[in-house]
Design goal:
Structural class: alpha/beta
Largest sheet: 8 strands, mixed, barrel
Number of helices: 12
Helix content: 40-55%
Number of strands: 10
Strand content: 15-25%
Strand order of the largest sheet: 1-2-4-5-6-7-8-9
Radius of gyration: 19 Å
Shape: globular
Bound molecules: guanosine-5'-monophosphate, manganese (II) ion
Order of helices and strands: HHEEEHHEHHEHHEHEHEHEEH
Length: 273
């Protein structure tokens, strides 16, 4: 394994805002610009499995960057650096394009999940470009799920809903990501055109031994069923957790028990059976 990131992303973000005021880009943002040009942003794919039969159903694309001096930056740190360096659009498009290129090699039934930020959502051309990328990759829109975090939506719920509705109208599926980790604003569930709820791993941590945790999970699953939402459990690390989520009716699971995020070639091999 690569060594972990040694410097927190916020350090760069804060430094970089200051730097920008002085019109000096932080070296790390320059490195990222180069890495983007050189196609050095790596995409890993973490398998997702059906809860009924544990069959492979798709993968979530996770970006990461192996910096020559600072170690590995996972997706969220990468996005923070890109945003502070004014490269968020380029990064998002790069990730979407690379992920679709890989997913095109998979068998037809498998789905691709992409993480989308608030910036993407409110970017005037993101939706349009995404549809063009889908068309170019001959990838059916209904095999793509966009995972949106709650933070991405707080800015302007009505506008978020409108943006997402336009994408959903094209067949793209929308999942609310990290559910249970943030503010859990239930208005999201009422207002947004959602297809799926992705439970944060903190929602699954205690379900095997704590009756309160289990009660919360059951309540959320009842609500999701009433809303007709698919439920994805993330961060499944052991068999006991997997049994609980399958028994309680989560549709899909993802986590280290199944597989860690893996290189594209490895996932392609896995998907080929
Ligand atoms: O919330 P999001 O889906 O973006 O989280 C993805 C991150 O979670 C990745 O960095 C991945 O390595 C990590 N991850 C994936 N599966 C597990 C798991 O089972 N347990 C833990 N602790 N982390 C996981
Ligand atoms: Mn996600």
């Amino acid at each position: 394994m690569t060594r972990p990131m040694s410097i927190p992303a916020q350090t760069f973000e804060r430094r970089n805002r200051d730097d920008r005021r002085r019109s000096e880009p932080h070296p790390i943002t320059e490195d990222l610009a180069e890495a983007l040009l050189a196609d050095q942003i790596e995409l890993l794919f973490q398998p997702q499995f059906g809860s009924r039969d544990n069959a492979l159903v798709g993968a979530e694309a996770l970006a990461r960057w192996q910096h020559p001096d600072h170690g590995v930056f996972p997706g969220d740190a990468l996005v923070a650096i890109a945003q502070s360096g004014g490269m968020a659009r380029r990064l998002s498009r790069h990730i979407a394009r690379s992920a679709l290129r890989e997913a095109d090699k998979w068998p037809n039934a498998l789905r691709l999940s992409l993480n989308v930020t608030a910036m993407d959502l409110f970017d005037r051309t993101f939706g349009e470009e995404l549809l063009t990328m889908l068309a170019d990759a001959h990838f059916p829109a209904d095999r793509l799920t966009l995972e949106i975090t709650e933070q991405a939506l707080v800015a302007d719920l009505d506008r978020s809903a409108a943006k997402l509705e336009a994408l959903a109208a094209e067949g793209i599926r929308i999942a609310l990501d990290d559910f249970g980790a943030g503010f859990c604003n239930f208005r999201y569930l009422k207002k947004l055109p959602l297809h799926a709820l992705k439970l944060d791993r903190s929602m699954l941590e205690g379900v095997t031994e704590d009756s309160r945790d289990l009660a919360v999970l059951r309540g959320i699953l009842a609500m999701a069923r009433a809303l007709g939402l698919t439920v994805i459990a993330e961060g499944i690390e052991n068999e006991a957790q997997r049994e609980v989520v399958a028994r309680e009716g989560c549709d899909v699971w993802q986590g280290f028990l199944g597989a860690e995020p893996m290189a594209a070639e490895k996932f392609a091999a896995l998907s080929a059976g």
